[in-house]
């Protein structure tokens, strides 16, 4: 991936046709209009020029940038890492060590989440196996959820759960 897809500093290139509406860009990038506006607001996507009627106009470079962001987010990269990767893509002649470091950190994060999810799976299987299917007053699932000390593993919290 090189910066040529996004233009200088992520902006639409001057010779790229600015004929795409935000709706067409959303369809092309398979995302919502609100997502594009949010990415503009936080600086991941440059604010596009507007027509005399105040409509945003985008180029194919903007679509490519959104596809890059969506792919990175799909791989679990946090927004700050996506920002860094976009910045790196604007400097194609530099070493890719920084991009490699970001990807390695994301891999470590994924591996950690996998270990925690495996622990979560084992604990849920244990709870279900111990449940006799009788009445709630004797239910091992409810009992284990009511008292964490009854769990076999201490670190089995779902890393995707919000607190």
How does this model look, in words?
By secondary structure, the chain is mainly alpha-helical. It has helices at 22-29, 33-41, 60-74, 79-89, 97-130, 140-146. The model is unreliable at 1-5 and 11-15 (pLDDT under 50).
Q: From the structure provided, what is the oligomeric state, counting identical versus distinct chains?
A: single chain
Could you state the order of secondary-structure elements as H and E?
HHHHHH
**Count of helical stretches:** 6
Radius of gyration: 23 Å
Structural class: mainly alpha
Anisotropy-based shape:
elongated
Strand percentage, roughly? Answer: under 5%
Task: Briefly summarize what is shown.
The chain is mainly α and 163 residues long. The protein has 6 helices and no strands.
Summarize this structure as a short list of keywords or feature phrases:
163 residues; mainly alpha; 6 helices; 52% helix; disordered N terminus
Topology:
Elements: H1 22-29, H2 33-41, H3 60-74, H4 79-89, H5 97-130, H6 140-146
